[in-house]
Amino acid sequence: MIELRVNGVLHQVEAGPETPLLYVLRNDLRMNGAKFGCGMGQCGACTVIVQGKPVFSCVTPLSSIGAREVVTIEGLGTLAHPSPLQASFIAHQAAQCGYCISGMIMRAQALLAANPHPDEATIREHMEPNLCRCGTHMRILAAIRVVAAGEHA
Amino acid sequence: MKRRTVLLAASGVLCAVAFAIMWRPSLRETTGTPIPADAATIARGARVVAQGDCIVCHTAREGTSYAGGYGLKTPFGTIYSTNITPDAATGIGRWSVDAFRRALRHGVSRDGHFLYPAFPYVHYTRMADADIDDAYAFLMSRRPVDAPPRKNELPLLFRLRPSLAFWNLLFLKSGAVPAGRGVVERGRYLAEGAGHCASCHTPLDFIGGEEHGKPYDGATVDGWDAPPLNRLDSATRPWTQGQLVDYLSTGVASEHGAAAGPMRPVVDNLSKLPRADVEAIASYVLSLQKPRGVRNDTPVNPSMPAGYAEGASLFAGGCAGCHEPSAPMMAMEGRPSLDMATSIHADTPRNAIQTIVNGIGLPDEPGVSVYMPSFDDALSNRDIANLLVYLRVRFGKKEPWRATNKIIEEVGKDGSAPP
Amino acid sequence: MTRHDDRVDISRRAFIVNGALVVAFATMAPARLLAQKVDTLGTVILAPNLPGSLKSNPFLDAWIKIDDSGITVCTGKVELGTGVRTAMLQIAAEQLSVRPALITLVTADTARTPDEGYTAGSHSMADGGTALFNAAAQVRFLLLTAASSRLGVPVSRLTAKDGEIRADDGRKVTYAEAVKDIQLHRQADATSPAVDPKTFTLIGTSLPRVDIPGKVTGGAAYVQDMRLPGMLHARVVRPPLPGARLKQLDVTAVEKLPGVVRVVVDGDFIGVLADDEWRAIVAARALTRAAGWTAAPALPGYAGIHAALRTLPAKVYPTASRSTAPVSTKPAFTCTHTKQYVQHGSIGPSCAVAQLADGTMTVWTHTQGVYPLRGGLAEMLGVPLDKVHCIHVEGSGCYGHNGADDVAADAALLARAVPGQPVRVQWMRDQEQLWEPYGPAMATDLKATLDDAGNLRDWNFALWSTPHNERIVNAGRLAPATLLAKPFVSAPPVPIPNPEGDADRNAVPPYRIPNLDVTMNFVPEMPFRTSAMRSLGAHINVVSIETTVDELARSVGQDPVDFRIRHLDDPRAVEVIRTAAREFGWPYRGTDDRKAAGFAFSRYKNIMGYFAIAVEVAYDPDTNAVRLLRAVAAIDCGQIVNPDGARNQIEGGILQSTSWTLYEAVDFDEIQVHSNDWSGYPIMRFSQVPDEVSVHIVDRPGLPFLGAAEIAQGPTAAAVTIALSRVMGSPLRDLPLMRHAPFGRT
């Protein structure tokens, strides 16, 4: 059993220490937000926040998490009470198929937590690791930009 | 009295000598409207400029090409590269070809001030006039960019540029190398001159000069080991001409690994050169080999040293998807197996740590590329240390590196990309 | 890749005798010319006079069911990330006069919804939306009629709203009561009660998408998120390339790995079932190592693909031909364009869940067509159609025929091995990129002349392509079925007929041209399996046409926008062109020689949505860096159901097409495909995203829905190509336009 703290809740996890965090979140903890995209840290669909930093959960072994706090999109807000960033993504209708969007939001959230008012260049550079195939980038940027400017949707 | 006169005279002479050493005239400004060169000259100049990697240091991140502003971290502080576009006010638009030659040969700016040796004039001085002139023509054909130079971040002592004259006395041997015949000689010309390979691959002494008697013995640059170029023959798998050419012209050698760290942009540039140039450089580099010592390659019997099991687990979850032999990258792409990787066999774990911590970045423009994510935020320092034990023993068949923690901390701390 | 295989069971290829097609599968007509009996999405036309998909599903109760539990609306179309679910809801709610929340919307399910074939080709609104629009209007009218009888007042004194019909005297009848007096199992009428579009309160509004809140808060939204009780996780192991055959495989060690429930090996088909997803992956890695394969047949290689395409045997299809004026004596303008193989490249690899229970195979799938998939699966499993049940659950965006159907077959084959237990299969990244059917490589030759007045006179266009429509018309179209010990063989390819077109989609220019000849060389034997990808041949065809028109206009000193308008008779075409030009600020007056603009237009398939676009690009010769700076587009898709949804689709289309056009190509040599991950198949990232994209809608209330999802692909590619050609100073004719030398190879 390995202890894992996710969204403020301490879990006892049976998975082996080598198991990438992604599968622990999805299968052991039955969460949907982090997605399998490439398994190689190339696309960012699996992005979650570990100790304030965005990480690719698909290549982050469970044993490396230790006591660090994991935050997933389930920990930002809910359907009834979305976080400002989630609300902004809804307001901008910043999704097409939406498969990449949880990863996008988590990466952006990590930026905004560390730097609440990033400029456009900083936002774009920060988001570089995450891929979107539908071409929703303009709306993703708009949704982040509004929160970065402090104009919560 | 007499003694005093002698002293005075002596100091006068000294002053005169010092003045002669430290003073350089300003050269006449041109009108700032360059005379357009013919296309063939510009094309030759483009090749020379690529040989010299000029764009790498003279372009800021996200900045305009050749407009300067790139910060070179030196042990003395950060030096920002200058604008070498033909902008009259902020670039080299008013430089004559003579001023340009003097800068490359003697490290002196048009207005007479000394340039810092971060600008590798100690090597550019080896270039032939014709090549320098072509490079000038090429740069003058670029679009002028208004980009004022950024102020260097140096302690006061090092802001006294005239003192560089004494540095030059020690390290600058002006003059072109005569272009000899043959591939190796051509390679020598390119590597010693425009290519300035030794700038990174030779250890520097305490005042930043290349140590005498240790050419190509290897050094540390930007937190990466620039491996010795005279020991390529002693590698676990000795480098061959073919492998070296592949590495320099494509960024990957199938038996050694991919270019990373500060070498990556160098390779990006070399890939634009005619293959003959790269083959010449490779031939010359391979001619530098010291005699093989007694190779201590007896494979270590992995006796499961401390950290190995933890490292194995980390590898299975974090690395195996790309680096196990069954991974598509290995099975289909023929990427170098880690048991061949130079960084795993190296004497220090520095480059392995750098690669784990910083990854191998995406190319500037979308193109088929070698990429590895950064594991800085995923793995703790202890994880990295354990992973290194596993990598070294399993793939390197060697004893684990010692004192890895210090380098891990160092790389983690300033492993961030340059300003 | 065609297999020359002596193990093929002759009985399974009953439809091919002596190389000739004699029996077609299920609903697919055997030849292009007979195809009018089915529509291009594979459904049988039963009532040709009815609007939209009512043609193939004429009964009202196939679409709308009303009972005491509420209103259920069924659509055979599926959510692919285009917002179609929300748009369908808007249409049904509008015409039934209810709040959207009162409707339960069921999307494609072979047990519950009409068969609308595939959700593809920008047809969802045009066919499915139109069917719902009419069915709902007719149902509402029937309900009003029933209420009128019950209450004894004329329909004119009744108001229907939110499930109730009220008379002006205050008495009311609920829809559920009224429906008892009528029979919804009746064929729809050809015309529906007229509605004034000015009265619409839902159609034409940007109702927020119903699926987005769940998707941004971690709700279970995709087939990937399904977790059924007792569900096993599976992975498949594929040959390194199609055509490689299994030489050896010892599974004993893998079977002993922790969590492994079963290893299935059937011919070249290999799968492993485990009690946990990560354990399945670890076991699949071990299987990959254990498997030995023969070499696959040599490939033509990246550089050789277009020469190969022109020399492989081709069927020649005359797409269009007319001759109404003397041939021009002016010198001809000629050009050749090429396009490399491209990948759909879904961010989420294909996934399916299957369960064999009580003799029925149920498959949860993100296929674009549950009914065609059911047919293919039933044939593969050797069971009757009614023993296979396909239910659509959303997946990652597919943009056409990707691995969705194949992975459903994987899941069915593996679930068959463990009756009763649900099995979830997801492909790994390399499997998605190596085994999805690619968008075809193509080549085009164009020759055109102007007359003495500078008008288009002669136009000769020929194109070469492999199929764009290898959809599931038999089991052999499912990749796993071709790997079995007794393999199934793919049905012979048949191109989608005109006017929709296949490789020749949009091959006929929309302009007034007296003499015209357009020919498709259809190459059925292909180095790679290819199939439908957003806009099919329109991508390169519109590039070929629009770059030529641009160059011809400039050759006679005319503005390319004015030149186009001069050659168009359709006022709707002219209006979108003028709108895009005006909003962009055309003619372009930029003075920076590192920036340029391009303009392009097309009407999708020449019968659907209109699209015009102007773009500005920047090019840095020192670094070869290209940026799309600005794109301004105008669309006319008839009556717009959801303006923001349409804009979202167009913005996405512009960015995706830009990525295809600038960067994308399957990288392969003679022995291997190298594009098996994102570093081998790079696509647009945030640093390449433009500064500004704006979409201007020319709305046409009351006119038919025309669809929007695919209309941006061709013209965007053309505008980017034109702009980049101008800034680089020479015409660019090979897609992708900016291919950088692959790292690691020369």
UniProtKB/TrEMBL annotation, chain A:
Gene3D superfamilies: 3.10.20.30, [2Fe-2S]-binding domain. It comes from Luteibacter rhizovicinus. This is Aerobic-type carbon monoxide dehydrogenase small subunit (CoxS/CutS family). One of its GO terms (molecular function) is 2 iron, 2 sulfur cluster binding. Pfam families: Fer2, Fer2_2. Residues 1-76 form the 2Fe-2S ferredoxin-type domain. It comes from the Bacteria. Keywords: 2Fe-2S, Iron, Iron-sulfur, Metal-binding, Oxidoreductase.
Automatic annotation (TrEMBL), chain B:
One of its GO terms (molecular function) is iron ion binding. Heme c 3 binds at C319, C322, H323. InterPro entries: Cyt_c-like_dom, Cyt_c-like_dom_sf, Cytochrome_c-type_DH, Membr-bd_ADH_cyt_c. The keyword Glycoprotein does not apply. GO terms for cellular component: plasma membrane. The keyword Transcription regulation does not apply. It is found in: Cell membrane. Its cofactor is heme c. Keywords: Cell membrane, Heme, Iron, Membrane, Metal-binding, Repeat, Signal. SUPFAM superfamilies: Cytochrome c. Heme c 1 binds at C54, C57, H58. Binds 3 heme c groups covalently per subunit. Heme c 2 binds at C197, C200, H201. Residues 40-143, 175-289, 306-395 form the Cytochrome c domain. This is Mono/diheme cytochrome c family protein.
UniProtKB/TrEMBL annotation, chain C:
InterPro entries: Ald_Oxase/Xan_DH_a/b (IPR000674), AldOxase/xan_DH_MoCoBD1 (IPR008274), AldOxase/xan_DH_MoCoBD2 (IPR046867), AldOxase/xan_DH_Mopterin-bd_sf (IPR037165), N-heterocyclic_Hydroxylase (IPR052516), OxRdtase_Mopterin-bd_su_IorB (IPR012368), TAT_signal (IPR006311). Pfam families: Ald_Xan_dh_C, MoCoBD_1, MoCoBD_2. It comes from the Bacteria. Residues 217-297 form the Aldehyde oxidase/xanthine dehydrogenase a/b hammerhead domain. GO terms for molecular function: oxidoreductase activity. This is CO/xanthine dehydrogenase Mo-binding subunit. The lineage of its organism: Bacteria, Pseudomonadati, Pseudomonadota, Gammaproteobacteria, Lysobacterales.
